[in-house]
């Protein structure tokens, strides 16, 4: 999947969710997914640092 297809799919998913969830549910889902993304980025960064030859993890 190329970047344009990925962003189009994400936008379609967001629009589908927005049409079926309340504002409170959308707010909660957005918050949860933001935290998930931040946590995954933190884990990936730590793995990258620990995999480098100069690191002492």
What are the SSEs and their pairings?
Elements: H1 3-20, H2 23-51
Instruction: Please estimate the helix content.
Output: over 70%
Q: Total number of β-strand segments?
A: 0
Regions with little confidence, pLDDT below 50 for 5+ residues: none
Question: How does the major sheet shape up?
Answer: none
Distance between the termini: 35 Å
Strand content: under 5%
What's the Cα radius of gyration?
A: 17 Å
| Shape annotation | elongated
Tally of DSSP helical segments:
2
SSE class = mainly alpha
Mean pLDDT metric: 94
Q: What is the chain-wise order of helices and strands?
A: HH
Give a concise summary.
With 57 residues, the chain is mostly helical. The chain is built from two helices and no strands. The protein has helices spanning 3-20, 23-51.
Structure report:
The protein is an all-alpha fold and 57 residues long. The protein is 82% helix and 0% strand. The longest helix is centred in the middle third of the chain and has 29 residues, at 23-51.
Please describe the structure with a list of short key phrases separated by commas or semicolons.
57 residues; 2 helices
